[in-house]
Design brief:
5-stranded parallel beta sheet, 32% helix, Ig_TPPC8_3rd, TRAPP_III_complex_Trs85, 1319 residues, alpha+beta, Ig_TPPC8_1st, Coagulation Factor XIII, Chain A, domain 1, Trafficking protein particle complex subunit 8, rod-shaped
Length: 1319
Amino acid sequence: MLHLTGQNYNARDIIRNIFSPLIGVLSSPQADEICHRNNLSFVELLQPFAKLPNDAHFRDVSGTSVSVRGLRLNFCDVDWRPPQTVLARKMLNESVTNAHNDKTRLVTIADIDLELPTSEPWFEQWRETFLTVQFPADHEFTRHLLSCLLVLSSADPQIVETAHKLGQRVQQMQSITPQKLPKWFHPTEVLNSYVVLHEASQGDLSKAQQGFELLRSTFGDSKCFLLSVNSLDGQGAAEVPDHWVTFIKRQPKSDANVPSTDLSAPKSPQEAVSVISMPAMQMSQLLEGATVQDSDLAMLHPLSPMQESATEAINSKFSISSESIASQTINPNVWANELEADAPHGGCLTSRDIDNLRHFVQDYAVRALIPYIEHLVAILAEGVTNKKGVSKSLLSATKRWFVTSKPGAGANNQNAVIYTNESAELQTRKLGDLYFMFGHYNLAFQAYHQAKRDFNADSAWQYYAGALEMAALSAFMLGTAHRKTYDYMEDAIVCYLTVCKLQQFATRATLLSMECLKTARLYSDVAKQLIRMTNEESDLRSALLLEQAAYCFLVTQPPMHRKYAFHIVLAGNRYSRAGQRKHAYRCYRQAYQVFQKREWSLAEDHIQYTVAKQAYMLKQLEEASRSFAHLLRPGSLQSAQQQTSFLKEYIQTQNELLKRSPELGLLPHALPQVVQSSIRVLTLVQSPSALAPQVPATNIDINSNLTADESVWNKIEEMLVITAANNKPFVFKPSRYLFTKQQPAMETPVAVQGEPIELAVTLSNSVRCGIALSEIDLLWKLTLDNEEVLSNACVYEESSDSASKIAVGAAIKTSCVASIELAEQAEQTLHFKLTPKLTGRLNVLGVICRVAASADPVASLLGTLQFETQKIRPHNAKQSSQTVLDNRLTIKLIPQLPAMNVSFSPVPSKLLAGEIIPVSVTLRNLGIAPIEEIYLGCDNPRCVSLLDQHSQMPLAMMSSLRNLSNDKLVKDKEIRGQRVFRLLQRPGQAALDAQQVHTISMWLQAPHQAGPFTLRLLFYYSLPTGTNSNIKYRLVRHIWQLQVESCLQADSTCVVSNAVTNELGLDVNVRNQHAVEGTEVYVNSISLYSKEFDLNPDKLYIMNSMGISPGQAGAQCLKSSICCNFQCRLQERDNKEEFQDIPSIKTLLQSRLSHLKILPAQHAQQVEQHMPTIHEPHSFLSNEETVYFNTNISTEEFNASIAGYVPHATLAISWSALVTREEGQRLASGLHFIKLYKLFETGHCPAAPVGAFLRRRQSADDSLDNRREFPLPEGAVNNEEACQPLADADEEDYWEPNENDVGHRCLLEDESFVMAVKA
């Protein structure tokens, strides 16, 4: 039989094997027994050795010796018949189904990496099976038996009689008219040769030789052969390798008892068409007995959006599925096979027997076959010569000379001529076939060329096509093929296809043409011919040819990868319709390599969906899940309904996978997507907790934006740590609690046992259908200190024991929202809180949840959304490619530590400018160990005052007592001293004992400038030594973000009230600027902080009282937009300020302060009780008199500031206000401070814009004694000029005209007057 696979044959080898001489074999029962001991028939025994080991020679008609190289004989049982139609289809399907090749090679085309199979054994097997099951046709003779081998046993006592019986049976086959199967090349004179099989292990060689000699004397020496085999008895191990395993193909075999007339094989080429090309429609009618309507014949294009899956066509009526073919009833006689398919072959043979088999094939060819072929060639050549030129009729002769005949030109395209065996045309064709089979391709081409002219003239189109086909092959084998000979094959295919309507021969011609054109590298022509042979009659054939055409597009110049992808998709569609799911799956996978990432979204979706369905049918559920997951990717263009369908199928596939493989545990979800960059982890932060009405410290929130002010917090922390370290050397590293994409974790984060860890992650629904998440939890793994590993994945695994689940439940407590709904293409952030109960290393792996479509929540899938460890590039990386892993999801859990809770009394969100708010700070030690030290750091100490702060005298106040130029002051220490306060300092005791609660009084003063105001407080508390080396201290953050509203605007000027006595006075203007109409402002009192002057309590003059009106809290208040002016007089102190030593702050303030009530409200005394007394060290006057240094001030600027004290007086205005809000009325109180440096210079609060006035600065060489407050001009004693501004004064004196002196305000103005003047 044919053998075309497994040996890497080239095109010429394939053609030689297809058209090798066919030798019939008929064996006696005794001979069959000898062969069956090797689990072989005689035909199968010869298969591996059918190729002649040496060259053979035969003489043509001219006597020229022709060398035949590589001649292969094709041995065939004479009882073999082509299979029935259904069986032929089954064989073709199984040849493709059983062939596979998982090895691939990588080919890069147009920057696309394609994984292609290294070989296509399924195509080779199908081609071999296709050529094997073909019916031997009457228009060609290469498939007719040339001779016959009659195989006998040497043990047969009646060997001659048995030989006669076998010969008579063969004679009956050859003499049947009309000729039936098997068909013979020259039935009137067939070469019958006799082979005597001798079993060397059992028989007597001398008896065998006697029987052999008897045969030789009866039938002739050249026709008889003795073959010794079975040198072993088969009891032991086989001596020779299994040469037959790649050759054996158990083909159908008819029962010898059934007469040939009763065989169900086709009897003519027209009947045999249905073996290969039977329309699938007929087959489905045969199987189902149903009539198919014409409307059902409409085939959908593979990429049509109306046919999402090619697998939908598998069970349609248009194709034959493997299941339907497998269900056919097979004739047991056809499949009868007494040989074991899996048993080893050649068990009784030795290497000597193998040599005997090779020698027999060579001997038979040289002694019997080739002389017979020479004889046949002579007979046929003589017959052709004698009949050449003699036309069958006058009409035929006229037609040959004068009519140009073309296939299909006439109305009747059937064969117009029936030739007899003796006709010159068939004799010429036979002669060409003989020459071709035995390698004389030159004479074969001449014969075929002559035959095709004769057949063309007779309009015998089937014969004509056959002659064209063989003429083209002869030219190719001769090596003289060119465009014209390739056109011969093209014409033959077209003629078979369109005129003769013989698909099987057109397909065979296409397969042969493909090999010829591939050798000539005409791949485009190959693809065109293969594509032409695809139709709706055979899906399997179309699939195989389309696949081969696709591969041709890859080797054209230039390669056409898009055409390859398109045709491999078409091939996959046809494989699917033919029931070849595995090959359909492979083709679509190959096509996807081209379509992926090409923004051909719909084509990509079609391929992925088909791959998913095919993989699902093949039980490759992992691959199916991956493809369904791809269909749910972001950016898909599918409709909401379609994506809902995809989601349901994805969930179904995943659930099927879990049922089949429960050991897989929790599978990753395709939806929703985790926005990996959104993962935020917060550690070492106590949850805000306080009893009402106390407000907990804000601390760090999981959603905090650290990029804005983290540097401020780090600087405060650094000052706190340095202060607490008390000059001990160390390397400061700021504490980090919140880890995000912008703030990655270079080192492993630390969390405390028993304290919550917060994690936030954003989930994104990328599809157009809503999804529902339920049973939400975090997936984690905890490695304990003893290296034992716990994971909550076991809670969701049925195989886990209850003890493991209990241990996991006790290890970490997790809280989160139970379920959420994600609308189409929406995002939502999940917040988790984990409380570890054990120590070790915690890895957060992902989110566990149950996913379902919102439209159909019944079908759901429990799985995970995996977190990915991000790669980051360190700031100090020398190379841009240097990356490290972000450790934010790997957390170290340490034993319990002391913890302090901080809470505050409530503070209004809106304050008035300069308002003072009392705040009580509650510190609670939640731990079981005492807290030794507590410090408070602040970014704006001007606005904060603590009751128990033990601060030193401010440098500015100290410089008013003595010159500090020569003092050795450390800049950083002074800066820290201004911003860091130690709390609860108790000598010999801990600051806060275990479980102890302590409340601290604190006041806040809003800035005098309106606008947003932020105040940051950082609490530092140290941990007991030896507690844990990872953490030395802990921090609590609090931030106030307030809105400051403008309320009271004040300014003051020091003037000479009496030019005669040089008495000085203060002109003070105040105005209610609050925007709310019902706000009432009361100016309760003023205080003057001055080294040389006091307020005269007896001289207060209200200059503008028309705007003052009664209010709710007193008879004199300022309504909105109302102003008031008053003047008070100053009196110089009698005694010069003298201190033997540096006084305390309180003593200094008391000695320099004087007070005067202005327009007090009824609640004035109540207000003063809630504000720090102005002469106390913690009063805001102390803050006002303190020069606060910027943290980045230079040393030169610091020293200049210390040495550059300027004498001045500070006026403090104490006020209160009733503020009307939507929620009700609120009582507010505060202080405004105005610094006065010189006469006629106006000071403002809030401060005037820069450039509104100039301040006098004392030069560095002025002595302390020469510095005075409000110095009078020289000569301005007892004369009136002293009260006038010196207009012509030198600019260096920095004097400025005062437009608001008493003389200019002699007219009392009211608002109506001012408005009238302005109008």
